[in-house]
């Protein structure tokens, strides 16, 4: 595994897989090692994926200063990675809580980001909120499953900050299209892959500045994609549309809703996910070569395989 040095000297690791144009991929969690992203459903057949283990996670070293886990400060580690890779600018993909870090990086180094892809993004950095009605609408397609009542009750306690370990276990099926062996293993791996102490600092006071973040997104003109899982408990299509609305000048600003997918759409339907992301990045490359006035496009639905 390759390594690079952060500005404060912390030794940081990143994973590299695939060929093609480079794509820096920020993991969520928050503070979950990048291992869980895998090859993003085969996206590495189209792009060279560069997945950092954020400080204190995976193969990256624990920093001397625990305060450096805060989201805004982690942006400096992403800038160090860009410099290490020798990239003048980079395409950036971020999943879930990683979207908060992507936004913080944009606030500090927006000129270094070409295409931006936010996958089932967390809204903390931009001050959006998922209502109980929106969350219920997102998970309702799962209502015929035998585990649904228990999972929804557990999700309610998670959202309220009152969850037990048993609640996290019970809510797991809501985050995937199919609650099969692969999904179970992926869900169960989260605990060992996440630095819980660092996660608390990641969202601590001063981590986010929503008004400033919204201003940066409003001024952004480069291609931007928000990809939602249709049944993602984190917010689903409603949140994705609200997020894309913060990007009125992007060329283009797109929302893609992956049918039947949950919080990890590259696992639910790899082909649909890769088609959406690789297609967007190809269009983004074309836009970079042929600048046009900014436009926003309505969201499209990407069909997925029937649930098994």
What share of the residues does DSSP label as strand, in percent?
A: 15-25%
Strands ordered across the widest β-sheet: 1-2-4-3-5-6-7-8-9
Overall residue-averaged pLDDT value: 93
- Proportion of helical residues: 25-40%
What is the distance, rounded to the nearest whole angstrom, between the alpha carbons of the first and last residues?
A: 36 Å
Highlighted features:
308 residues, alpha/beta, Rossmann fold, nine-stranded mixed beta sheet, 12 helices, 9 strands, globular
Topology, please?
Layout: E1 3-5, E2 11-17, E3 22-26, E4 48-53, H1 71-85, E5 90-95, H2 98-109, E6 113-119, H3 132-139, H4 148-159, H5 165-171, H6 181-188, H7 190-193, H8 196-202, H9 210-219, E7 224-229, H10 236-244, E8 253-258, H11 265-268, H12 270-289, E9 300-302
Parallel strand pairs: 3-4, 3-5, 5-6, 6-7, 7-8, 8-9
Antiparallel strand pairs: 1-2, 2-4
Helix pairs in contact: 1-2, 2-9, 4-5
